[in-house]
Amino acid sequence: VSAAKPKIADYPFTTLHPNLGVVAIGGHDFVLADIPGLIEGAHEGAGIGDRFLGHVERTNVLVHLIDATEDDVAKAYKTVRGELEAYGNGLADKREIVVLNKIDAINEDEVAQKTAQLEKATGEKIMQVSGVTHKGVDAVLYAIVSEMEANKAQKQKPAKTDSNKQWTP
Hints:
alpha/beta, 3-stranded parallel beta sheet, 4 helices
């Protein structure tokens, strides 16, 4: 989705360091950070996990990609959420877009079933994409822009004040 050229391969965990790329869509530009997948225990340094969680702290929105070829997509989601919560530093509170990825690799019934499993696990609407066919990718990028704008608007809201409150030294 950007001009970045990260090393990728057809096996898990090919990302060895965060990859940054500028995404331009619908008149909006933003930097996308591709962070490697987390494994259980990442918050304690398992794999190369805790080195990447520090990078996640600087992000505005999380896009949580769940591999549709996983047997238990809800468990995969909960594992990563657990790592974000265990790491702390506000990661679990960040806005999140949950995406079922690799939908081209399974049949439509499985896509529907796994989407439903994720919706039940997250309580959120799940987006679906295929990086190979590009199906759904633009919708996810627009969702990122929307979440970033909502974040920006939230930060710019003036603090509520009580005009009836009297100041006393």
